[in-house]
Amino acid sequence: MKSPFWRRFTRNKGAVAGMAVLLLVVVVALLGPWIATNDPWGMVQQPFLHPWTEPGFALGTDTLGRDILSGMIYGARISLLIGAVSTVVALLIGITLGAIAGYFGGLVDAALMRFTEIFQAVPSFALAIVLVAIFQPSVGSIVAAIAIVSWPPVARLVRSEFLTLRQRDFVQAALLAGQSTPRIILTQILPNAMSPIIVMASLMVATAILLESSLSFLGLGDPNQMSWGYMVGSARTVLRQAWWMALFPGLAIVLTVLALNLVGEGLSDGLNTRLDGRTK
Amino acid sequence: MSVAARPVLDITGLSISLPAGADRALAVERASLSVLPGQTLCVVGESGSGKSMIANAVMGLLPRPQVAPVAGQILFEGVDLLTLTEPQMRELRGRRIGMVFQEPMTALNPVMRIGEQIGEVFDAHVSVPAAEKRRRILAALADVGLPEPELLIDSYPFRLSGGQRQRVMIACALVLEPVLLICDEPTTALDVTTQAQILRLIRELQQRRGTAVLFITHDFGVVSEIADHVVVMQTGQVVEAGPARRVLDAPQHPYTRKLIAAIPHGQAQRATPTDDTLRVLQVQDLCKTYRSSHGLFKRGRAVQAAKNISFELKRGETLGLVGESGSGKSSVGRCLVGLAPFDSGRILFKGRNLSQGAAFRREAAGKIQMVFQDPYASLNPRHRVGAAIAGGPIAQGIGKAEATARAVELLKLVGLAADAAERYPHEFSGGQRQRIAIARALAMQPELLVADEPVSALDVSVQAQVLALFAQVREQFQLAMVFITHDLRVAGQMCDHLAVMQRGELVEYGATQQVLNDPQHAYTRQLIKAVPRLTQPPQHLTMAVA
Question: How far is it, in rounded angstroms, from Cα B267 to Cα B258?
Fold first, then answer.
């Protein structure tokens, strides 16, 4: 079975590669506790161990003798978890506000959009730092902070989709049939606005992972969770003596974010029905 | 006729391939036709017949390599266009071959002045001094009958109406005096009166300059107005060719006969005054004004779409609301179903005054339904057809099983198979979708049906079938119908009464027979005169006789 969606998606070679990398990261994250040989926080070997010198420590150890490979495996869990959950939360806020603004228009729209602009006017990373600092770093507060700074673009996108879809004849027909407003929003308009939302969501996961890494790099990560950003941050001071401590987690961030962006582009091709029959 | 020996354009055995996965392998199959100097060849066919493909192949505008000519020749003045390189083709386009497209509203660049757009044709092909260029552009604009060319040359396209824009496009195409003009449905997007003017213009310019014209259309009325020769196409093949009069008067091929028979004849069919006294709809002094919102620095603009409109409708009757685009007929239609608020006046549904906005729809309780113009936009692409039809009754509190059963029943009634309920709208053609839209409206068991241009997006043969379906359900359900259309032929055939609208005003209102046979208002007479007719011989023939 090869649906038109998959035909268009797989025509984009970059998206297929991105999907492969992403699947690998997801599998590692899911099976983390069973693959990792050591506790990521445990000081299990001598510090500053070079990669590929000691069996069982393929990527070496850090300044305190902790296993870098195990740290990266656990980091994948936390990165994906925060990326996915904060995106879901941001989508919930953004879609709700955007849908209401776009459907009702007029004063409601103006009020909601000004509210959105307040969030867009503040630099998002600064806001995230402030939020995490106020609420104490933990997985919950980081997810909340990332979600709060990343919903405005979703609201804007959904609003513009609703503004045009609302005028469509099938929505008018549903109005004439006496369907209720929530029903029209959820069953008539929202399914038709899903394609751009899905594409945007895949890119938002990438941004969220970057944000989480940046927060951890600054020492604002959850202190109980090993994360890629924290590993890069703690290796910063010894960058010239021990390149591997920052390189491997850094690479993991780059590859995951790149993979998500490629997949996002592939999704946008796949969901674009007009691309059918055209070479790329 | 001494130069007629050699055709300007001679297409022999042209085949054009379609990409894999299309509904047929060849868009055009072994088509042959030739256009003589000073004559018009009409290529007629329904959408999907491949007629536009031929025009694009001549201009070298096919989206290669998916769609490409695979066999045959296109001889233009003795040279095979298919063997030419892109730079050679570019040399011919605009200079030797001009083209006019269907959609005048999007064919002009909105941020370029009219003069600059026509000037581009000069810049591409010949080098003339600026003053000379301007003089020739002015002459070209005057030539196509545009008023005040001196002012027009420096204005932007948004100041022009659709018909005027199409005149600019024709001026663009003809400014370098090409020997061949290709017109791809140039009047389809225009009002009937504008269409008549544009057709007259093309005919006139052609006679003056001896240009050969390849005219693509789906409308046999247009064919009879303009064609010397006709080629009829069906699914990529030429099924009939010959002189216009012969094809129109004595069509040989069954497909041609079917197409000609499907043209709405405009003769009032029903002269059945219903003795039913129930007034389903009364409209009294309806007024509707659109105001563009005023900003900080600009005043709001007001357009009056309906001025004191009054009419009434009994059960089983059909009222035709006729007018050109912008006449306000669609606005009145939207007020009637409660999708647009109105400023003043009353709408009485079965004697009961309906209030405004959402309350209007609640009071009507789904008994007023609408069929929309564009069958591609009026069905939700994500909903199965059965669910789309059953959705309305379910919202009115009818059980799901019952609503679904009724949906299947209605699909059968409108001539679709029962398994259609499980399929999505994109699996259906335009005509089938319009049937689904009718079924959806009927599912609410309406008493008043407002149809807004329900057949103007459809091919002529499909149009006839959908009109027949409207007539059938009207009898069966004793529906009162408001039929909004710009096509007097359709209105004459469908309606008991006609209301003619011009710029928001009702200029004529009466029984169909009376309005069509004895029009009182000048505008109505103008509309009736502009309708392309089969019976009327082409103008140049009458001229030759005289």
Answer: 18
Helices A228-235 and A190-217, axial angle in degrees (round to 10) = 30
Nearest residue, CB atoms, A177 vs list B366, B374, B383 = B366
**What residue type is A72 in one-letter code?**
M
Contact: A176, B66; criterion CB under 8 Å: no
Q: What pLDDT is recorded for position B545?
A: 36
- Residue pLDDT, tens place only, A119-137: 999 998 999 999 999 998 9
φ, ψ at A123 (rounded to 5°): -55, 125
Over residues B438-483, the pLDDT tens digits come to: 888 888 888 888 998 888 878 777 888 888 888 888 888 888 889 9
- Outline where chain A has alpha helix (H): 4-11, 13-35, 68-104, 106-121, 124-135, 139-165, 169-176, 181-183, 190-217, 228-235, 243-271
Q: Is B165 a member of any domain?
A: yes
- Which domains are assigned to chain A? 4-38+58-275 (1.10.3720.10)
Q: Find the angle CA(A196)-CA(A200)-CA(A201) to the nearest 5 degrees.
A: 115
Query: Could you give the ipTM of this predicted complex?
Result: 0.73
Using an 8 Å CB-CB cutoff, list chain A residues near B395.
Answer: 177-180, 183
Mutate to test the interface with A, among B331, B360, B382, B400 (most CBs of A within 10 A): B382
Average pLDDT over residues B25-51: 86
Range of the domain at B163: 105-177
- Judged by DSSP in three states, B24 sits in coil
Token pair 């240009």 in the structure block, residue: B211
Amino acid present at B322: V
CA distance B440 to B369: 9
Q: Is residue B542 part of a domain?
A: no
Report the number of distinct structural domains present in chain B. 1
Q: Is residue B500 part of a domain?
A: no
> Residue B488 pLDDT > 90, yes or no?
no
In a domain, B161, yes or no: yes
